[in-house]
Amino acid sequence: MAASGVHPKQVHELRSFSDYFEPLLTFVASLPVEEKVIIVAHSISGIGLSIAMERFPEKISAGVFAAATMPGPDFSYKTIAQKYSKASMSSSMDTQYIFGNGPDNPPTAVLLGPNFLASNYYRFSSPENLALATLLLRPFPVYSKPAAQNEIVITKERFGSVSRIFIVCDEENDDVQRWMIENNPPEEVKVISGSDHMVMFSKPQDLCSCLREIGDKYY
């Protein structure tokens, strides 16, 4: 995503979700007419996947939401954001908030702290992966204004035409994941037992097997 990893942009340059997910959206837009892909989203990247499914349903065979934010035509991102805020961010611990528009306005970005990561996201991942995350993690944007949240427009005709699979990481916040599934049912639900939020680190082989099954069925 933009302003993530080695991407050259900085978080203050991103004004919308489309800016943040621009690398993904550009990739999907560039696919040849006859080519389709399965996209796997993790965590907040479920928003980007949902936007891509709405814009390019003809290019996506299936969308996989691995403990990912999963809005729907009748289930807004704003509703999910409020639930996440109450469930997982009640204690921000050493998380840093960045106020790009001044201290009297809502934060514009957040940088998750090492203690927060260890307690909430990397509980069953290796110490090495946690250490690497603390070195590489960059601030990610927070869009609290209605204009940004209303940018995520999802319809049954486009988004709803793409098959969705949700992967539950059962040692994360299972209640929030199940709540999203109940309010916006996908075609299929898979559960990876013993996985924390970072399923690619805590249960990589199980995730790989799960994705192979999905690929065989939907691609």
TrEMBL record:
InterPro entries: AB_hydrolase_1 (IPR000073), AB_hydrolase_fold (IPR029058), MES/HNL (IPR045889)
Gene Ontology BP term (one): jasmonic acid metabolic process
Highest rank taxon of the organism: Eukaryota
Xref: Pfam families: Abhydrolase_6
AB hydrolase-1 domain mapped to chain residues: 18-207
GO molecular function: methyl indole-3-acetate esterase activity; methyl jasmonate esterase activity; methyl salicylate esterase activity
Name this protein carries in UniProt: AB hydrolase-1 domain-containing protein
UniProt source species: Jatropha curcas (Barbados nut)
